[in-house]
Structures are given as C-alpha cells and as structure tokens.
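Hi,

I'm pasting everything inline rather than attaching a file, because the server keeps stripping attachments. The sequence lines come first, and each chain or strand is labelled.
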Amino acid sequence: EVQLVESGGGLVQPGGSLRLSCAASGFTFSSDGMNWVRQAPGRGLEWVSYISGSSTIIYYADSVKGRFTISRDNAKNSLYLQMNSLRAEDTAVYYCARDLDYYDVLTGYKRAFDYWGQGTLVTVSS
Amino acid sequence: EIVLTQSPATLSLSPGERATLSCRASQSLSSYVAWYQQKPGQAPRLLIYAASNRATGVPARFSGSGSGTDFTLTISSLEPEDFAVYYCQQRSSWPPTFGQGTKLEIK
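And the predicted assembly:
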C-alpha cells in the first residue's frame, strides 16, 4: 500500500524558515517523480514544486522560486521542501504527491498525481 | 501558464441525480486532464486521469470525457459520499495547474 506522510509544519514568523519532510512507503520511491502541492485556508490547490526520481529535473512555481528548495533522499525514501524567506501568503496545508507519468503504446501518455499525503499545516504569522 | 476554468462554482443536487461538472482550458490540452475529489479535512483523491481513465478503486458511476479545451466529469447517480469539492488539473505543460474547484452540495 502506497503511503505518504508529511511532517515539519508549524508556526513560523515572516522571513523565517521551515523544512518539510515526506516519508514514502509501499512503492519504489527512486523510480517516481514527486510533487509538493499547497492549499491556503479555504482556497484551491496550487502546485509548488516537482523533482524527478533521480533529482535531475526540478521545477518550481514562480511564487516560490528562489525561496523554496525541493530535494529527496532515495536511500531514506524521503522527500523534502526547504522553505526560506517565508511570507504570510505561504500559509497553507502542504501536501506531497506522487507523480504518475507513463506512456501506454496504445493510448498515449498518462499523467496525474496519483497518491497524496494527509498534509502538514504551515502558518506564517508574527 | 494554462488557466483552467471550472463551472459551475457550486452545484446543488439530490442523491440519485446525475452531476455534470465542466472544465475549460485556455489552450488545448490534448487529453492531459485529471480530476480529483476532496472532502473537508482530507487530501485530494485522484478520480480520473488522461481525461477518461478511472483511477484504481474509483466507482464506475464516475466518468470523464473531453479533449482539446473542454472536459467533463460526470457522476451518473449521486451517492451521499459524493458530495465534495472537485478539481480538474492539466498535465499538458509545466507548471501543472488546477481549476478553482466545483463544490457539489446536497440540495
């Protein structure tokens, strides 16, 4: 059974830093890309960052570029998000999500976020 | 960045009725659209990927259709557990984007 468990959220002051972790189990972690997605209170879903299985491909949303760093440790089956220079607008529940991305010879590419963790709340406030 | 517009924002229906949710894209997505269900206090759950493929364990009453810029999620006969917020997502190009959501509420 695929499981993703986030941790590391909490209350931090504006300008502060926080490191989120996502512990993965039930699948070959090193084979799959991973994402961070956030959801501000009462709002919709916003993709934050992506990292490929080998860490060779990394993407960020413009809203966090230069402040957040995604990384992974395949030996520990863990995904991370280092968040620096935090702002009030970064307040959200942060989810890690596995990236489904494969090619079916008959029907083409299949892409989605197929498994999600339960989320960890980050509150940026003084 | 591709913008997804979902309609309606809120849909009020009764159990047993048919629900039709729409997602329109600002540019063609081929079939790289997914649909998610989110209940209060829970993480999103993948329902449909590649526009029309049901994810593992998703009941057959959920179906997806569309291509290009117009996509639809249909729930053929609503069960009480189906009342939730539904999001479409595009995976055609980076960054992946989500629609603003459709809240399906009990009438």
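The mean pLDDT of chain A is 97.

If the labels don't parse on your end, tell me and I'll reformat.
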